[in-house]
Protein backbone atom coordinates (compact mmCIF):
# COMPACT_ATOMS: atom_id res chain seq x y z
CA UNK A 1 0.00 0.00 0.00
CA UNK A 2 1.06 3.57 -0.62
CA UNK A 3 2.08 5.72 2.32
CA UNK A 4 1.01 9.27 3.12
CA UNK A 5 3.76 11.50 4.52
CA UNK A 6 1.20 14.01 5.78
CA UNK A 7 -2.51 14.52 6.26
CA UNK A 8 -4.54 14.33 3.08
CA UNK A 9 -8.25 14.61 2.56
CA UNK A 10 -10.56 13.13 -0.02
CA UNK A 11 -14.16 14.27 -0.38
CA UNK A 12 -16.17 11.35 -1.71
CA UNK A 13 -18.21 8.37 -0.56
CA UNK A 14 -15.79 5.59 0.23
CA UNK A 15 -15.63 2.34 2.10
CA UNK A 16 -12.87 2.13 4.66
CA UNK A 17 -11.40 -1.27 5.33
CA UNK A 18 -9.31 -1.22 8.48
CA UNK A 19 -8.94 -3.64 11.33
CA UNK A 20 -11.20 -6.15 9.59
CA UNK A 21 -14.34 -3.99 9.43
CA UNK A 22 -16.06 -1.73 6.92
CA UNK A 23 -17.39 1.73 7.65
CA UNK A 24 -19.14 3.92 5.10
CA UNK A 25 -18.28 7.58 5.41
CA UNK A 26 -19.72 10.66 3.71
CA UNK A 27 -17.96 14.02 3.54
CA UNK A 28 -14.36 14.89 4.14
CA UNK A 29 -12.08 12.09 5.21
CA UNK A 30 -8.71 12.98 6.66
CA UNK A 31 -6.03 10.35 6.42
CA UNK A 32 -3.47 10.61 9.19
CA UNK A 33 0.13 9.64 8.60
CA UNK A 34 0.28 5.99 7.70
CA UNK A 35 -1.42 3.56 5.34
CA UNK A 36 -4.14 4.82 3.03
CA UNK A 37 -7.35 2.88 3.67
CA UNK A 38 -8.61 0.70 0.84
CA UNK A 39 -11.44 2.30 -1.14
CA UNK A 40 -14.17 0.14 -2.65
CA UNK A 41 -15.02 2.82 -5.25
CA UNK A 42 -12.00 5.08 -5.45
CA UNK A 43 -12.20 8.52 -7.02
CA UNK A 44 -9.27 8.17 -9.39
CA UNK A 45 -8.91 11.92 -9.91
CA UNK A 46 -8.63 12.45 -6.15
CA UNK A 47 -5.98 9.74 -6.13
CA UNK A 48 -4.20 11.48 -9.02
CA UNK A 49 -4.03 14.71 -7.02
CA UNK A 50 -2.73 12.71 -4.06
CA UNK A 51 -0.03 11.09 -6.20
CA UNK A 52 1.05 14.50 -7.51
CA UNK A 53 1.53 15.97 -4.04
CA UNK A 54 3.06 12.81 -2.59
CA UNK A 55 5.66 13.01 -5.37
CA UNK A 56 6.16 16.70 -4.54
CA UNK A 57 6.73 15.79 -0.88
CA UNK A 58 9.44 13.38 -2.04
CA UNK A 59 10.81 16.05 -4.41
CA UNK A 60 10.32 13.68 -7.33
CA UNK A 61 9.70 16.03 -10.25
CA UNK A 62 9.54 13.19 -12.79
CA UNK A 63 6.67 11.52 -10.93
CA UNK A 64 4.95 14.91 -10.67
CA UNK A 65 5.31 15.45 -14.40
CA UNK A 66 3.92 11.98 -15.10
CA UNK A 67 0.61 13.15 -13.61
CA UNK A 68 0.35 15.83 -16.30
CA UNK A 69 -1.01 15.46 -19.83
CA UNK A 70 1.49 16.23 -22.58
CA UNK A 71 -0.33 19.50 -23.35
CA UNK A 72 -0.86 20.56 -19.72
CA UNK A 73 -1.39 24.25 -18.96
CA UNK A 74 -0.04 25.46 -15.59
CA UNK A 75 -0.37 28.94 -14.13
CA UNK A 76 0.46 30.76 -10.91
CA UNK A 77 1.10 34.38 -9.83
CA UNK A 78 4.89 34.09 -10.24
CA UNK A 79 5.49 32.06 -13.41
CA UNK A 80 2.32 33.04 -15.24
CA UNK A 81 1.15 30.51 -17.81
CA UNK A 82 3.38 27.58 -18.74
CA UNK A 83 2.60 24.81 -21.22
CA UNK A 84 3.70 21.21 -21.58
CA UNK A 85 7.40 20.70 -20.96
CA UNK A 86 7.75 24.27 -19.64
CA UNK A 87 5.57 23.30 -16.68
CA UNK A 88 7.50 20.08 -16.06
CA UNK A 89 10.79 21.97 -16.21
CA UNK A 90 9.51 24.51 -13.70
CA UNK A 91 8.88 21.72 -11.18
CA UNK A 92 12.27 20.15 -11.98
CA UNK A 93 13.95 23.49 -11.33
CA UNK A 94 12.07 24.20 -8.11
CA UNK A 95 12.72 20.71 -6.74
CA UNK A 96 16.42 20.90 -7.65
CA UNK A 97 16.80 24.25 -5.88
CA UNK A 98 14.64 23.49 -2.84
CA UNK A 99 16.26 24.13 0.56
CA UNK A 100 14.77 22.99 3.89
CA UNK A 101 11.63 22.07 1.95
CA UNK A 102 8.46 20.53 3.33
CA UNK A 103 4.94 20.30 1.98
CA UNK A 104 1.52 19.43 3.34
CA UNK A 105 -1.76 19.15 1.45
CA UNK A 106 -5.41 18.65 2.30
CA UNK A 107 -8.97 19.49 1.22
CA UNK A 108 -8.62 17.34 -1.89
CA UNK A 109 -11.88 17.22 -3.86
CA UNK A 110 -12.46 15.92 -7.36
CA UNK A 111 -15.10 14.72 -9.76
CA UNK A 112 -14.83 13.30 -13.27
CA UNK A 113 -13.61 16.57 -14.78
CA UNK A 114 -12.32 19.00 -12.15
CA UNK A 115 -10.64 19.03 -8.76
CA UNK A 116 -9.21 21.22 -6.03
CA UNK A 117 -6.66 21.02 -3.25
CA UNK A 118 -5.02 23.23 -0.65
CA UNK A 119 -1.28 22.91 -0.11
CA UNK A 120 1.34 24.62 2.00
CA UNK A 121 5.03 24.76 1.04
CA UNK A 122 7.70 25.73 3.56
CA UNK A 123 11.25 26.42 2.39
CA UNK A 124 14.19 28.81 2.37
CA UNK A 125 14.07 31.31 -0.49
CA UNK A 126 17.53 30.83 -1.99
CA UNK A 127 18.06 34.43 -3.11
CA UNK A 128 17.63 35.89 0.39
CA UNK A 129 17.91 32.89 2.73
CA UNK A 130 14.57 33.85 4.27
CA UNK A 131 11.96 31.33 5.41
CA UNK A 132 8.76 31.21 3.38
CA UNK A 133 5.43 29.56 4.11
CA UNK A 134 3.28 29.71 0.99
CA UNK A 135 -0.40 28.78 1.27
CA UNK A 136 -1.79 27.82 -2.11
CA UNK A 137 -5.18 26.94 -3.55
CA UNK A 138 -4.96 24.62 -6.56
CA UNK A 139 -7.56 23.98 -9.24
CA UNK A 140 -7.33 21.11 -11.70
CA UNK A 141 -8.97 19.94 -14.91
CA UNK A 142 -8.60 16.27 -15.88
CA UNK A 143 -8.64 14.40 -19.17
CA UNK A 144 -8.02 10.69 -19.74
CA UNK A 145 -6.60 10.13 -16.26
CA UNK A 146 -4.12 13.03 -16.39
CA UNK A 147 -4.04 16.64 -15.27
CA UNK A 148 -4.59 18.88 -18.31
CA UNK A 149 -4.91 22.18 -16.39
CA UNK A 150 -3.32 23.13 -13.05
CA UNK A 151 -3.88 26.64 -11.70
CA UNK A 152 -2.32 27.70 -8.40
CA UNK A 153 -3.39 30.89 -6.66
CA UNK A 154 -1.81 32.62 -3.67
CA UNK A 155 -1.20 36.08 -2.25
CA UNK A 156 1.93 37.33 -4.02
CA UNK A 157 2.29 40.27 -1.63
CA UNK A 158 2.23 37.90 1.36
CA UNK A 159 4.86 35.76 -0.37
CA UNK A 160 7.05 38.79 -1.14
CA UNK A 161 6.90 40.00 2.47
CA UNK A 162 8.35 36.67 3.57
CA UNK A 163 10.80 36.11 0.72
CA UNK A 164 12.09 39.67 0.30
CA UNK A 165 11.71 41.10 3.80
CA UNK A 166 11.28 44.87 4.18
CA UNK A 167 11.34 45.52 0.43
CA UNK A 168 8.53 43.02 -0.06
CA UNK A 169 6.53 44.38 2.86
CA UNK A 170 6.76 47.98 1.63
CA UNK A 171 6.62 47.48 -2.12
CA UNK A 172 5.52 43.89 -2.77
CA UNK A 173 1.98 44.99 -3.58
CA UNK A 174 3.13 47.28 -6.42
CA UNK A 175 2.94 46.23 -10.07
CA UNK A 176 6.60 47.20 -10.44
CA UNK A 177 7.88 44.78 -7.78
CA UNK A 178 5.46 42.02 -8.78
CA UNK A 179 6.56 42.46 -12.40
CA UNK A 180 10.20 42.21 -11.33
CA UNK A 181 9.44 38.99 -9.42
CA UNK A 182 7.82 37.50 -12.52
CA UNK A 183 10.65 38.62 -14.78
CA UNK A 184 13.23 37.05 -12.45
CA UNK A 185 11.26 33.79 -12.35
CA UNK A 186 11.03 33.70 -16.16
CA UNK A 187 14.74 34.43 -16.49
CA UNK A 188 15.60 31.65 -14.04
CA UNK A 189 13.37 29.13 -15.81
CA UNK A 190 14.71 30.07 -19.25
CA UNK A 191 18.29 29.65 -17.99
CA UNK A 192 17.45 26.29 -16.42
CA UNK A 193 15.81 25.06 -19.62
CA UNK A 194 18.72 26.18 -21.80
CA UNK A 195 21.14 24.20 -19.61
CA UNK A 196 18.94 21.10 -19.91
CA UNK A 197 19.10 21.44 -23.70
TrEMBL record:
GO terms for molecular function: isomerase activity. Residues 51-150 form the SnoaL-like domain. Keywords: Isomerase. CDD domains: NTF2_like. It comes from the Bacteria. It holds the Pfam family SnoaL_2. Signal peptide: none annotated. InterPro entries: NTF2-like_dom_sf, SnoaL-like. This is Ketosteroid isomerase-related protein. It comes from Paraburkholderia phenazinium.
